[in-house]
Specification:
about 190 residues, mainly beta, OB fold (Dihydrolipoamide Acetyltransferase, E2P), seven-stranded mixed sheet, globular
Length: about 190
């Protein structure tokens, strides 16, 4: 039996958490910015020393690490598949996808389940930090050498008071062809 921390988002962009360790919502950026179209609501997570974020509307849930089933002949970044309430979901190792050195799993490691190109996948992160609402005005286009991640996958860089936040574009990070290959891994399981 696996224990999970689950954060679900509904279509209005609000999140509900089913465990005490779920990320909390925090707002930052220019004060007085009441226009919700000028706000981004993000799920932030870490890989090593770098902090990343994805649009909360793409995130279906966040789960504690669970047992992964390896699938022969799957793409190299696919670590395995999980059975999530009867649905087989491929799980990608983001460290491998970003060509970062491997790291041991910790109690803070999570599987972030997202929908990309109409398909559901999970990806492993070192830790999930928070749900954050920021003003679009503090996001700049990514410079070509912003971090160890290929800048083609980066939507922008958020300049927070005490750190930079790398916003990932899941559509470019997981191309349609990659998603089809991952779907084949799930079917093979």
């Amino acid at each position: 039996m696996s224990t999970s921390t689950t954060t679900k988002t509904n279509h209005s962009g609000t999140s509900t958490a089913s465990a005490n360790s779920a990320p909390k919502l925090r707002t930052t950026g220019e004060s007085g910015d009441d226009d919700t179209t000028a706000q981004l609501q993000l799920v932030t997570f870490g890989l090593g020393e770098e902090e990343f974020a994805v649009d909360i509307l793409k995130v279906q849930e966040i789960n504690r690490m669970m047992s992964l089933t390896r699938v022969p002949s799957s793409p190299p970044e696919v670590e395995g598949v999980i059975n999530l309430r009867g649905k087989i979901i491929p799980v990608v190792d983001l460290r491998r996808r970003f060509a970062l050195p491997p790291a041991a799993r910790s109690p803070q490691s999570r599987i972030v389940v997202v929908e990309v190109h109409g398909r559901v996948i999970g990806f492993v992160v070192d830790r999930v930090s928070e749900v954050l609402r920021i003003s679009r005005s503090i996001v700049e286009p990514a410079p070509s050498m912003v971090c160890s991640v290929d800048s083609d996958f980066i939507e922008g860089v958020g300049k927070l008071e005490d750190r930079l936040l790398i916003l990932l574009d899941l559509g470019r990070l997981f191309s349609t062809a990659q998603m089809s290959a991952m779907a084949q891994s799930a079917v093979a399981a």
